[in-house]
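Final paragraph of the annual report: two paired records, presented back to back.
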Amino acid sequence: MRMIKNLSIITVAIVFFALSGCAMVASPTSGALYTSVKYAGTATSNAGARKQGVSCASSILGIIATGDATIDTAKATAGISKVASVDMDAFSVLGLYARIFTIVKGE
């Protein structure tokens, strides 16, 4: 009987922690209630930046996450072959919703 009680407590704890996830976003700084941060990723020696491509991924409650925020996808959206810079734009609110944009500039 004691083993069943312990197993029940462990099961409830696992379910609680699994369902209490928060939507977080990668950022050099973040707020518990709200985050809206733009930051530099990388830069190259390619000076030209006439085109800009964007890719995005998002998360709801830290349970469902979708999207493709890769550099390759951002390059493809604008037809960029030579990358000049890669920047990031991160947003989250109350751990309920989060999204991140990858912004690629180049030729």
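The closing record of the year follows.
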Amino acid sequence: MERTVTGVSYGVSGTTALGGVLSTNDMALIIGIVFTVLTFVISWLYHRRRERRELEQHEWSRQQHQLHMQLLRDRGSRFDQLVDQLRVGDPAGPDRHRGGEEAR
């Protein structure tokens, strides 16, 4: 409790001494500079967060696109395999000439 009271009394006496040395215009200037710096820091932090979030969203979208393309490639190769399997027994398919030659 004593430490708190001592800290507050030193803070108030320092502020009073500073108020006696500085004019009202000087204090307004210092307060304005402090708030300008605080506004800059807060704005910079939020901008950095937004950039990080956008970068994460871009990376997620890129990964989703890669997975989607892989799925399409896999479907295409499976489809080609099924078509090839169906063509083997197709009498109108490209194997009919070979089959016909072997039968002769």
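The first helix runs from residue 2 to 21. This concludes the annual technical report; the extension proposal builds directly on these records.
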